[in-house]
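Task: complex structure prediction.
Instruction: return structure tokens for all chains below.
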Amino acid sequence: MTNSLEVDSVILEFGSKRVLQDVYLKIETGKVTGLLGRNGAGKSCLMKIMFGDLIPNNKSIRINGNALVTSNRSPKDLRYLPQKKFIPNSLTIKRIFSDFALDFADLIEIFPEFEKYYKSKLVNLSGGEKRIIEIYTILVSQTKFCMLDEPFSHVMPIHVDAIKKIILREKDNKGIIITDHLYKHIIDICDDLYVIANGKTYLTKDIKDIETLGYARV
Amino acid sequence: MRTLRLLLTFYKSFAFASLVVTLSCVGIIYAWGFDTFSAIFWFKIATFGLIIYYIHNFKKDDFSYYKNLGLTKKLLWISALLFDFFLFLILITITLQIR
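Output:
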């Protein structure tokens, strides 16, 4: 089944500063949607708004046309990888995989070096390894949509390639929205690419648009 | 079952500090009797405030883990604080009976 997640009418103000004002995003099953923007453009804020962690002045978020009115989100609908570490350090990998109903054998197939960590607590892993566990749990666990905020940062290049493969595999089952300043990786895998500039979202039609919108020199 | 396990994990993030407070209250009740109950009751409530402040400032990112599994902040706090307060009342009652 194809699901769609739409966001529009978002107004976000911090005091007198308007951060977001004219936003439209559409995320669909089978597609990877990229979101780029300069630092402070409002990418992370927009994801937090979608996840219900940030209350804006106005918003309309709909899954298959049904509005998400409260800040509660069902994990069956939406999961979110925040920019910062979010899994408590005291948990073991075994426990995390049990909570998210994930198959450890699948992780080992992609990242064989993690086999020794099955019963280890997250605190014993390096920063990059922790990030891989976090990305994997959000990306592979069952949900209609997942949002990834800077999944490639702090991850070594060989693992970035593996994560990109997982994203391309998982997009068959869910809609994925992803933002990261390593924009070439985003461009590689995304089907739709939005740029946030001056509080507005622009759906790019050509790769040169990201230069025109002042994000990067292509 | 999974929800209960997650609630317990959240409670464990401040259980030690809370237990130290509860045992201190039990010690005071044991030494000075029921007359001190009003004071320790408000002391316990005040420490709830400190615990909430600490978790919201130093462990706030962990809330995303629970939210990704369907547990809201409100549910986590209500369940954990109710359990902790219930434990506090039980231990105080037992102490008063032993005394």
